[in-house]
Backbone:
């Protein structure tokens, strides 16, 4: 009985003290759990070559300039690749927080591309817990480089399409990881190729070094390829963010900056020294309210 | 035994409930800064505020992620690079109104300005501050407004030298709570 009384007394005095001294703790307990969406899984809409689960916020137009120089092992005569350069210019727009689309043009093989990206699952904590973000990505490309043989091809023969599901988790504020099952279909099989489909699994991640600098890595092993001459794409890079810009500097064996190209048509071997220096620069403009 | 414990808990709870408190769970907080390159403004409309009339104590808490900016990228950088809201999700204030008398608040003719002394926590850093609050009556609602300057450097918010032109070192904070 004594114990019970003691408990009552303790509880009362405890809550009294609580009521008077810790108004703040009381107030915080009052707060309803709200939806806490995980933000900034990656700094850019690309990990390096491939897309990340990031979708720009509603009303953001992003202008992206990407460059891949020649290979580092091409020697001092070519200034270690800097004499050659492939460029992609693109405009990408997010009409909602979950959806974005973009169009670009690459100098490599004079290719036009269009893509859509839709985030159907958002990593979050709070009211409900969702461990991953998931994004559907689809792109179509048209290669307009003139052929050097007499073989007549029509427009559809110049096309390739890619479908991907991007699955990412911001594991800690510093570490984010992504898996990207990818399927590409190529309308035309060249004479030296064996298939028209590429199935690959992208693996990528980023590690934050400081609030504005991250180190990124990406590897795209192929489970079905177009021929033995094509190597798996590998890339390592650094993201540097300054206000409205994100600079991405990378080393990669891929020349192309489009999915169908870097995943399935990289002819260079990273571990043989066929490494391109490259960079992506993006500038974001808020053109509509978010 | 269990029943008694529950009973005692209930008694405890009624004590909390009985405390003369007025609160607002949709309080307004805004910060504004003028920098050479761009003005920065963000508004939070989900701030929590409470005033305890039995003690004159005040408490405020808000989620940093509930601050919204005109430019979405600015909002992302605010959370990710400056305020680090994953690590420090909330800003809080706990203080006490100086020379508090509950009766002062029953009939406020025009407005009543008081000073409140307490601890302001932003970005995980707690500082002792004294802030002004102006009270007004709007029917049954007691409106508490406070305006003060926060020096971001004091709260260990780092601004890279490259961006010093974009970000002001002093930020004007305005909070309005409609206490019911």
Residues:
């Amino acid at each position: 009985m004594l114990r019970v009384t003691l408990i009552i007394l303790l509880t009362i005095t405890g809550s009294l003290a609580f009521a008077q001294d810790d108004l703040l703790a009381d107030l915080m307990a009052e707060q309803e759990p709200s939806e806490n969406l995980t933000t900034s899984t990656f700094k850019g809409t690309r990990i390096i070559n491939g897309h990340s689960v990031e979708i720009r916020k509603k009303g953001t137009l992003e202008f992206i300039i990407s460059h891949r120089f020649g290979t580092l092992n091409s020697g001092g005569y070519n200034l270690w690749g800097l004499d050659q350069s492939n460029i992609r210019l693109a405009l990408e727009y997010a009409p909602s927080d979950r959806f974005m689309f973009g169009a670009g043009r690459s100098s490599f093989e004079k290719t036009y591309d269009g893509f859509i990206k839709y985030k159907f699952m958002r990593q979050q904590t709070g009211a409900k817990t969702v461990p991953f973000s998931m994004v559907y990505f689809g792109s179509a490309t048209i290669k307009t480089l003139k052929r050097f043989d007499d073989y007549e091809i029509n427009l559809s023969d110049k096309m390739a399409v890619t479908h991907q599901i991007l699955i990412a988790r911001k594991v800690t504020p510093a570490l984010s990881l992504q898996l990207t099952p990818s399927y590409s279909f190529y309308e035309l099989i060249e004479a030296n190729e064996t298939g028209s489909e590429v199935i690959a699994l992208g693996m990528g991640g980023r590690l934050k070094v400081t609030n504005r600098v991250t180190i990124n890595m990406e590897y795209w092993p192929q489970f079905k390829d177009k021929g033995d001459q094509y190597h798996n794409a590998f890339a390592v890079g650094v993201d540097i963010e300054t206000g409205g810009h994100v600079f991405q500097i990378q080393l990669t064996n891929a020349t192309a900056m489009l999915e169908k190209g870097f995943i399935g048509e990289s002819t260079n071997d990273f571990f043989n020294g066929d490494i391109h220096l490259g960079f992506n620069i993006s500038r974001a403009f808020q053109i509509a309210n978010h | 035994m269990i029943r008694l414990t529950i009973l005692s808990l209930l008694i405890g709870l009624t004590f909390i409930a009985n405390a003369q408190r007025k609160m607002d769970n949709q309080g307004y907080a805004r910060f504004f800064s003028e920098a050479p390159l761009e003005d920065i403004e963000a508004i939070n409309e989900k701030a929590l505020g409470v005033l305890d009339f039995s003690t004159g104590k005040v408490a405020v808490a808000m989620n940093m992620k509930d601050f919204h900016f005109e430019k979405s990228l600015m909002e992302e950088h605010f959370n990710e690079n400056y305020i680090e809201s994953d690590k420090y999700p909330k800003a809080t204030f706990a203080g006490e109104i100086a020379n508090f008398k509950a009766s002062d608040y029953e009939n406020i003719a025009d407005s009543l300005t008081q000073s409140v002394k307490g601890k302001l926590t932003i970005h995980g850093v707690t500082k002792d501050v004294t802030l002004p609050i102006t009270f007004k009556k709007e029917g049954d609602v007691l409106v508490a407004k406070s305006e003060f300057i926060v020096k971001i450097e004091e709260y260990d918010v780092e601004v890279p030298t490259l961006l010093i032109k974009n970000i002001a070192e002093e930020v004007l904070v305005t909070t309005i709570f409609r206490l019911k």
Notes: Confidence is low (pLDDT under 50) at residues 14-20 of chain A. The longest strand of chain A covers residues 60-71. The interface with chain B takes residues 4, 7-8, 11-12, 14-16, 18-20, 23-24, 26-28, 30-31, 34, 36, 39-40, 56-60, 173, 211-212, 241-244, 284, 286, 289-290 of chain A (CB under 8 Å).
